[in-house]
Amino acid sequence: MQYYCNPVNVNYRYQFNKDPRSGGKVEINREAADPSMICFEGRYYIFASMTLGVWVSDDLVHWENHKLPEELPLYDYAPDVRVMNGWVYYCASRRDENCDRYRTRDILNGPYEKIEGTFPYWDPNLFIDDDGRVYFYWGCSNTTPIWGTELDPATMNPIGETQALIEGNPWEIGYERSGEDNSLPPATEEEVEAKFEAFVKAQGMPVESIPEHLIPMIKGMFSNMPYIEGAWVDKHCGRYYLQYACPGTQYNTYSDGVYVSESPLGPYTLADNNPFSYKPGGFLPGAGHGSTMQDEQGNWWHTATMRISTHHMFERRVGLWPAGFDTDGELFCNQRYGDWPMPVSGLRQDAWRDPAWMLLSAGKDACASSNTEGHEPQLAVEENVQTWWEAASNSTDEWLMVDLQQAYDVHAVQINFADGDIDIPVPGEMQPGDQARYIDGSDLKTQWKLEGSVDGQTWCVLADKSEADTDLTHDFLVFEDDLKIRYLKLSDIRVPYEQKPCVSGLRVFGLGDGEKPDVPAFIAVRTGDLDMEVAIADQPDTVGYNILFGAAPDKLYHSYMVFQAKTQRIGALVKDRAYYVRVDAFNENGITEGTCVKLA
Q1: pLDDT of the residue at 486
Q2: Residue 352 domain flag
Q3: Which own/partner contact pairs does 42-47 have at CB distance under 8 Å and 24+ positions apart?
């Protein structure tokens, strides 16, 4: 059995972004998003925005980042890739220019044949039906729909009429509402104009100096209308599943919904299970704008965008989860423990299996050689990717240590590096566009050493990457031998650009030998058409809770993980639909299922 842990463990590249929405300041962060995943000639490929390349794997566990030819539109967003007649078709999006396509029979070595584009689009998706007919979907806006049309497979030009397929409806679909936890109702026109004027004034820019095509985009930031974007179509048992992302990539509720139809161009109806990809809680939230595919054994997988959004709203990563279709044809995705270690067996597998190992490090004691103000070592174990420990210097003498408070069987460790405020010159030429940017394609290095101990006195080296030539900022280690460990120490740290080391999560997984939590007590109440509140009673010896909900007791496909007993509002409901709720409790020793109730 092999294991991986989200986000996908690859080298995420830095970009230097001069975003007009941030007043033209150059912001530096790592980004990868909008993944298209395919299986081609027995290997798996993920194409993601702003990576300059493609990630390649033979097993869905170990990924390598390969650079793509510079003639491809690598600075355009949302690359879309599909296989047709032995060719791999590639395109990306540029809103106001005709977008070219490319095709190849060899992804890594090329060559890529260019197919001249005839119209502009954003967030594209190509779909090839069983009968060989080709369809195309696109759209990324909080004012316009997802569009669809048929293409001539020989020329890839549209034939027939372009049709509007789905539009945002945040008045009846709770998970489409903007904001953290879907908390923002749509704004009025007066509210939008007032916020736009205040924004322009704060930036010190006269309105006439703002490019005309950017004004609707900027105003859209204040409308609270959801972005309906990221189309992806699959066919299963004769039905078409049009998947889409909403409400916005910067929110913890970035998710993928799905409509179904008997025809590739509709009409489409909102599926019963929605959103099918939804991960608002845990260490690294977000599960929107992705793709769904089958592996060589027939298992379904969904890959999507995960949210950090501290240094820039587009600071993002890529996640991968088991998915599938139930006996009623409902598309689902298992994200109950969606950033814990997950198995890939290479065989047909149960998409709903519980994790083999539990989270051991959440809330445990942490100390360090030093820290900067506001970035204490305890932040490295609070299960929040948006906070981090930051050393006071970039010396390799700096270290971070976690005390699990007792010795556990440790099976895996994930080391998540963050970024502080980076202030360096742009190391290359900025590429023009709505957001002028430069992506650093150089081979950077992230180096460290990890040690373990039972007593804090005698240490063994668990992994030594102090001479590594890789740049893995979410590195994941699995230990084949049984290890009894209480203390873990991360030292000898070097990170790109000679930064001070920052760690958002030193996460440890394994098993305790104590008792599981008691069955949790909770009350779930529907507080409106689109909202519910779940009040969880505090209980001892519990690390966290998983709020599960869905259309039936055996279809609790949605989840929200919290790390303390509290009242949690969930705003992802669909109007006039019934729900069932269950709260599970977990600690270092296992998971205790709660009692399923119908939402009052």
Answers
A1: 98
A2: no
A3: 42/296, 44/295, 45/81, 45/107, 46/8, 46/303, 46/318, 47/79, 47/80, 47/81, 47/90
For 536, other C-beta atoms within 10 Å of its C-beta total: 23
219: DSSP letter: H
Round to whole Å and give the CA distance between 178 and 26. Answer: 26
In terms of domains, do 108 and 164 share one?
Answer: yes
Domain of 53? 31-186+224-344
Phi and psi, residue 454, nearest 5°: -90, -35
Q: What distances in angstroms separate CA 437 from CA 17, 78, 87, 123, 496, one per listed residue?
A: 4, 16, 31, 19, 19
pLDDT band, very low/low/confident/very high, at 220 (cuts 50, 70, 90): confident
Task: Look at the block and give the residue holding tokens 């309105």.
Answer: 207
Preceding amide of 425 cis, omega within 30 = no
Please give the tally of structural domains in the chain: 3
Residues 287 and 331 occupy one common structural domain: yes
Each residue of 335-350: pLDDT tens digit?
999 999 999 987 878 9
What tokens were used for 70? 């510079």
pLDDT range class, residue 221, cuts 50, 70, 90: confident
Sign for the pseudo-dihedral over CA of 324, 562, 410, 464: positive
CB distance 585 to 520 below 8 Å = yes
CATH code of the domain in which 571 resides: 2.60.40.10
- Are 476 and 414 contacting, i.e. CB atoms less than 8 angstroms apart? yes
What pLDDT was estimated at residue 316?
98
pLDDT at residue number 188:
84
Residue 82, beta-bridge partner list: 89
* pLDDT for the residue numbered 161: 93
- Which pLDDT band holds residue 189 (cuts at 50, 70, 90)? confident
Rg, C-alpha atoms of the chain: 24
**Cβ-contact 498, 421 below 8 angstroms:** no
The letter for the amino acid at 569 is R
Contacts of 516 (CB under 8 A, 6+ apart): 585, 586, 587, 589, 590, 591, 592
- CB–CB of 556/584 below 8 Å? no
Whether the Cβ atoms of residue 464 and residue 50 lie closer than 8 Å to each other: no
Query: Collapsing DSSP states into helix, strand and coil, what is residue 384?
Result: coil
